[in-house]
């Protein structure tokens, strides 16, 4: 299994990917090495983005939802841009068909930001992903690292409201 993963092409020919590959190799391309690998990506590139998360997930045979969940939950990881709370909306085909664009629009309107932006008070970062690997649960969104499947507008708004009200519980 590890042989195959080793051959996956990194998102670019940037030499820093070799450092990331070395970390994964050291952990036998096991999922147990996920946090350490994300650390290495962050140390090497300064932040995590969609392509790097996707690459790490594929290399470790980890569900994308888990990788996004971990990376958005821990304070030490910074996706750009990083607000105090994060909401990742899946725009993959299955979620798209199930009406997620409408949900995204509602969130954008309510917070006055576009996908990829953070509210001026730094409270919420709104991000999108191409597929979180949980298509059976479409439409899917991740709120502070917590996956919400078959999410509707009402539920999403309630979860966002809850995030606004809660203390920052992410771990440093
Ligand atoms: S398309 Fe949204 S989880 Fe796959």
Features:
alpha+beta; globular; four-stranded mixed beta sheet; 172 residues; Glutaredoxin
Question: Could you describe the 3D structure shown?
Answer:
The protein has helices at 2-6, 16-26, 34-45, 50-59, 64-73, 93-97, 100-111, 153-165; strands at 85-90, 124-129, 141-143, 146-148. A 4-stranded mixed sheet has the order 2-1-3-4, sandwiched between helices. The chain is 45% helix and 10% strand. A hairpin with a 2-residue loop joins strand 3 (141-143) and strand 4. It has 8 helices and 4 strands, in the order αααααβααβββα. With 172 residues, it is α+β, with helices and mostly antiparallel strands. The protein folds into 2 domains: 16-73; 85-171, Glutaredoxin, CATH 3.40.30.10. Residues 90, 92-95, 131-135, 138, 140 line the site of FE2/S2 (inorganic) cluster (FES).
The DSSP helix count reads: 8
CATH topology descriptor of the largest domain:
Glutaredoxin
CATH superfamily of the largest domain: Glutaredoxin
Oligomeric state of shown chains:
single chain
Helix percent band: 40-55%
Report, as a whole number of angstroms, the end-to-end distance. 33 Å
* CATH C-level class of the largest domain: Alpha Beta
